[in-house]
Design brief:
The structure holds two protein chains of two kinds. In chain A, helix 6 packs across helix 9. Chain A is an alpha/beta fold. Chain B contains 16 helices and no strands. In chain B, helix 11 packs parallel to helix 14. Chain B is globular, with a radius of gyration of 21 Å. The chains are: A alpha/beta, B mainly alpha. Chains A and B meet through strand 15, helix 14 and helix 15 of A and helix 1 of B.
């Protein structure tokens, strides 16, 4: 394939790229005049960054004397190329200053006050580059601060570093932009040095062929280069037809080789490397003569100048100095004079005459209004697009500028990407031919910038999203871990409970007691109506074996049954209240109180019986089977009072209970007797006061005791403790009974009270 | 010192839309001259009427839309629309035909869609079709070539016919259109269609005087003049060649196929090329960039489709000529055509476009 390409080139045939335009070249303004050597300017302004990449580390300080060629910055990174002092002098300032950028951006610049001596630092001229290794050569190129001098300014040492399988090294001397002749002139005047530079690149890159491309509008340069090449087989001088933008990297590759560089990839991936002719000259200077990149050829042109011509400008020379040297007419203040850095198609207007020349500045264009009226337009002449399609006819990337323009105006970035806006090379051909004079490139630049910004924002958002997701995941994980832990702990607790440790037993027994309570409650609920049954159950419980347990349970059951009963009675009374039947009420209450009394007595009797039984039990464990008639028990217990210390307390409790019951009875009777309403009321207030005073205390006391007693009872059950503990249980039972009685009494009281004053509506505050 | 800032590119080839429009109008002049030579003053009067109407309508709408009037009124697009519409109208149609047609073309088909650059349909053809559908009688008032007309159609006669319906001497339009042997004369396309429908062969029908010596008396020269003007435009690169050339090729192929299949009922290829509005349509209507396809491939598809449609309407459609309908149908399909004919971008494979 390479051979067929070479064959084609040898026969002088080339490929063509799509589109392209032929704007007025205007190269003759400067092409026939030699490159002029200028006097030293008074001050140089050297921006730290003059290429694609980053700025180096500063090596000098303000006030320092520097020599010509001395490095001002240090390269710490492959993408950094150092800058050098273009002449000797003193650093007067290091500060922000406007640089060669379309936006008039300011950047850190080294201000060098020229001393006029032009004293070189010590130079290490290399007489024979064959003794240098490739690595040394690349180091020299890097140290000389060479970056591409044609356009973007990519660090040259990276592009010159040897890579395998390079088919073509293309030396770009096309210079397709109108007006610019700097490459033309350097080829004409320095052809030998350029060829030397090419040989150095040849040694580094080892390409199969070297193609020097020159547009056919530069006959002198072509002649000079052909002479300098002097029949070297490997180097082909390709004279290509003039068409803008043939000098674009992708377009030139297409013209010479017929290949297209796939979108998004670099020429090197297709085995092609391209260098500018001026870069080749700089490489030769750097490697052979140890001259860093401190000067370049700049075309200062335009019909607004009296003496347009190419000059050797030191990097950092303010364009003001160049314009003065080339006879710029003094400008009236109001006059709007564009000064363009670069060519008319892709150059940019500089905002100030202090803008310095940098490594990529190849032209300063000062057009007159006559030759370039559109550059002077104060307002846009833009009219509506008529879809004529001339723009797409001239587009070298074969895009559809008219559609891009609509999408750019509509900010439809998705569609712009679909239409491959990123493949636009900003050549300006579309805007040049647009009959509606739409500033197409301007729209694309804005859209590109916004897309770039959007992409950065998207990236940010994506990162934020990832962070959020990670956090969510982490929280969920922690939650799950926590749940797992809780589950494990629960399982461990269960396991521990099932083990035969004392703690486990305790816990278990507590649970069992609770269960028993619940069961008892249920049973009590069932048996509330049938009191004798309760007793019987209680007795049965008592009778069957394990005394303590059954006793406690019985006590609880009784207490509950009583409470139930009491609730029933109050309910009854409230029902009765609604009826205004005094007589029946009194009868009822009487009977109630009677039953209450009986109940209390029975409870006391049971308690006593129990105490006795306990006693008997302690004496003779076998003697338990006495058919339990409540009356009998009462009689028995009343009769058989044993002076045992154990039973004493129980008896006392029973006595207390009995006394209480009696008292209640008396009270009830008393209230029955007092018929006058007011008196009864007054009395009731008394009893109310008493009861209300007593009750909280009682309740407070009883509750803990009760719970305690239950716990103790349980303990007893489990541990099978001996008799002394029984006492306590009995006491508890007695207290419970007493409490129950009291409650029943109170219920009766309240019942009576409400029945007595059905009309006065005494609030039931006492209860 | 601060300088004037502008965005690149700083140079421009100084072309302008208005200049382009003017060039197209100039290129139509030979055709208009041929029309005048063969058919008299009628179309010139209609063109003038249409141009005045167009300017008034544009001025009104532009001022209503708060647009820069001086810039857009004379951008030539409205005048071009008027010229094209005036060329298309029957020479003896009443004056209000061109006024209504132009009003519809400018106000509705162009300005209501957003003005120049935003109209999906060719305004002149939209106006023409509206007239054809709304006023079928007036739109068939085709005048035979002057040489075949017994009445002396000088300027004043034509003017009064257009304004009042009668010549100065008092002849009505119908009388003017009637030949010496008492037959109302129509266009060659119309005549051929009627004849073929009534069972005559092509050979029999072309004996009619409206066909003249070659294909269509008068019309062939007018078409030739428009062809000349169109070639001039292509030479000047004022318009791309794709749409007109593909249109003509398409029409040629269709008529050739038709003629090969049935020579008795099909007109020749050259008859199709040089009668009716073929050349005007090819070089002045189809090349309207606004309503056409924009990519080069799309323009070719656009032209091929238009040629096919013109042939179909002429042979089996209800109208004698079909350029206007074909163009509107193609206008409709232009966005779709554009969608599928985008060129391959540099560095992209064919599949990824």
């Amino acid at each position: 394939m390479v051979e067929s390409i070479i064959e084609r080139i040898n026969s002088g045939r080339f490929w063509d790229f799509h589109g392209g335009i032929h704007p007025p070249e205007q190269k003759t303004l400067t092409s026939d005049k030699p490159i002029k050597q200028l006097n030293l300017p008074k001050q140089l302004i050297i921006p730290l960054q003059q290429h694609i990449g980053r700025e180096g580390e500063l090596l000098v300080k303000v006030g320092e004397q520097v020599l010509k060629g001395q490095a001002l910055t240090l390269s710490t990174n492959p993408m950094v190329v150092p800058i050098h002092a273009p002449t000797s002098g003193v650093i007067s300032a290091i500060k922000q200053s406007v640089i060669a950028h379309p936006s008039g951006l300011s950047q850190l610049c080294v201000f060098l006050d020229v001393d006029g001596q032009d004293t070189w630092r010590k130079r290490n001229v290399c007489s024979d580059i064959k003794q240098l290794s490739n690595h040394e050569i690349i180091e020299k190129i890097a140290d000389a601060g060479i970056s591409g001098m044609g356009g973007a300014g990519f660090p040259t040492h990276i592009k010159a570093n040897s890579k395998p399988d390079i088919n073509f090294l293309i030396i770009n001397g096309v210079e397709c932009e109108p007006y610019i002749t700097s490459d033309d002139l350097i080829m004409t005047e320095q052809s030998d040095a350029i060829i030397e530079g090419i040989h150095i690149l040849d040694r580094l890159l080892k390409p199969a062929f070297i193609l020097i491309a020159i547009e056919d509008n530069k006959p002198r340069a072509i002649k000079a280069i052909q002479k300098a090449v002097d029949g070297v087989e490997k180097i082909k001088v390709c004279v290509i037809p003039t068409k803008y933008p043939a000098g674009g990297e992708k377009q030139l590759i297409q013209v010479l080789t017929g290949q297209e560089i796939p979108s998004g990839s670099l020429p090197i991936h297709s085995g092609i490397v391209m260098h500018n002719v001026a870069t080749c000259f700089a490489i030769n200077d750097a490697v052979r003569h140890d001259i860093p990149l401190i000067r370049r050829v700049v075309t200062v042109t335009g019909q607004a100048l009296e003496k347009p011509q190419n000059v050797w400008a030191l990097l950092g020379t303010p364009i003001k100095f160049l314009l003065e040297q080339c006879g710029a007419k003094p400008m009236v203040n109001e006059q709007k004079q564009p000064v363009i850095m670069g060519g008319p198609m892709m150059g940019f207007c500089v905002s100030s005459d202090l803008v310095p020349i940098i490594k990529t500045s190849n032209c300063i264009l000062v057009p007159s209004k006559k030759e370039m009226p559109s550059a002077f337009d104060t307002q846009s002449k833009e009219t509506e697009c008529i879809r004529c399609g001339q723009c797409s006819d001239v587009c070298p990337s074969n895009l559809l500028p008219q559609e891009l323009q609509w999408s750019a105006k509509a900010k439809d970035y998705e569609q712009l990407e679909k239409l491959n806006l990123s493949d636009c090379i900003d050549c300006g051909a579309c805007a040049y031919v647009c009959p509606s004079q739409i500033p197409l490139v301007h729209y694309y630049r804005i859209a590109k910038a916004e897309i770039r910004q959007q992409q950065q924002l998207d990236l940010k958002a994506e990162k934020a999203k990832q962070r959020f997701e990670a956090r969510k995941l982490r929280l969920e994980k922690e939650k799950r871990a926590r749940q797992e832990k809780n589950k494990k702990a629960a399982a461990a607790r269960k396991a521990a409970m099932n083990k035969k440790t004392p703690e486990a037993n305790e816990a278990k027994s507590a649970v069992a007691a609770a269960l028993a309570r619940v069961k008892a409650k249920k049973a009590a609920g069932n048996l509330a109506n049938a009191k004798p049954q309760v007793e019987k159950v209680a007795d049965n419980v008592i009778d069957t074996g394990s005394d303590e347990k059954s006793q406690v349970a019985a006590a609880i059951a009784r207490a509950k049954a009583k409470r139930q009963l009491k609730a029933d009675s109050t309910q009854n009374s409230t029902v009765d209240n609604s009826e205004v039947n005094h007589a029946s009420q009194s009868v009822e209450t009487a009977s109630h109180s009677a039953t209450d009394d009986k109940k209390a007595k029975i409870a006391a009797a049971i308690a006593k019986a129990k105490a006795k039984k306990q006693h008997q039990h302690s004496e003779s464990p076998g003697n338990e089977t006495s058919p339990a008639n409540t009356a009998n028990i009462t009689k028995k217990s009343q009769r058989e009072e044993t002076p045992t210390l154990n039973d004493k307390k129980a008896k006392i409790a029973a006595a207390v209970a009995k006394a209480k019951a009696k008292k209640a009875k008396q009270k009830q009777e008393h209230t029955h007797a007092d018929n006058p309403v007011i008196e009864a009321k007054a009395k009731f207030t008394d009893t109310e006061v008493i009861s209300s005073n007593d009750e909280p205390v009682m309740a407070n006391e009883i509750k803990p005791v009760k719970t305690k007693s239950i716990a103790q009872a349980n303990d007893k059950i489990n541990d099978k403790v001996s008799a002394p503990r029984d006492k306590k249980a009995k006491i508890a039972a007695a207290i419970a009974k007493a409490k129950a009685k009291k409650k029943s009494k109170e219920a009766a009281n309240s019942h009576k009270k409400s029945s007595d004053n059905p009309l006065t509506k005494q609030p039931d505050e006492s209860i | 010192m601060a300088f004037w800032i502008a965005s690149s590119p700083h140079n421009h080839n100084q072309t302008q839309t208005s200049r382009l429009m003017r060039l197209v109008i100039y290129a139509a002049l030979p055709g208009i001259a041929a029309q005048w030579y063969f058919f008299g003053w009628g179309n010139l009067i209609h063109i003038t009427l249409a141009m005045i109407t167009a300017l008034v309508c544009e001025f009104t709408v532009l001022s209503l839309r708060n647009k820069p009037i001086s810039k857009q009124l004379f951008d030539g697009s409205g005048l071009l629309t008027a010229v094209l519409l005036g060329i298309c109208l029957p020479a003896l149609a009443p004056w209000w035909i061109s006024v209504i047609g132009t009003m519809f073309a400018i106000i509705i088909a162009k300005q209501l869609y957003g003005g120049l650059g935003h109209n999906p349909f060719n305004p002149a053809m939209a106006g023409y079709v509206v007239l054809l559908v709304s006023f079928p009688l007036e739109m068939t008032l085709w005048q035979p070539p002057l040489a075949l007309v017994s009445v002396d159609l000088n300027f004043s006669n034509t003017l009064t016919t257009i304004l009042t319906g009668f010549t100065v001497e008092g002849y009505s339009v119908e009388q003017v259109r009637t030949s010496i042997d008492g037959i109302t004369m129509a266009t060659p396309l119309d005549t051929l269609k009627t004849n073929i429908n009534s069972g005559l062969t092509v050979l029999e029908s072309i004996n009619s005087p409206v066909f003249g010596d070659n294909f269509a008396f008068g019309w062939e020269w007018i078409n030739g003049a428009f062809l000349l003007g169109g070639l001039f435009l292509i030479f000047k690169k004022a318009m791309p060649w794709q749409a007109p050339i593909s249109f003509l090729i398409s029409l040629f192929i269709c008529s050739f196929v038709g003629y090969s299949i049935s020579p008795d009922t099909s007109a020749s290829t050259m008859f199709h090329w040089f009668s009716g509005a073929t050349m005007l349509g090819a070089f002045f209507i189809l090349t309207d960039p606004v309503s056409g396809a924009t990519s080069n491939k799309g323009k070719i598809v656009f032209g091929l489709l238009a040629g096919l449609l013109v042939y179909l309407i002429r042979t089996i459609g209800g109208y004698p000529d079909g350029v206007a309908f074909a163009v509107l149908l193609c206008n409709m399909s232009a966005p779709l055509i554009d969608q599928y004919t985008r060129p391959r971008t540099y560095g992209h494979l064919k599949g990824e476009r």
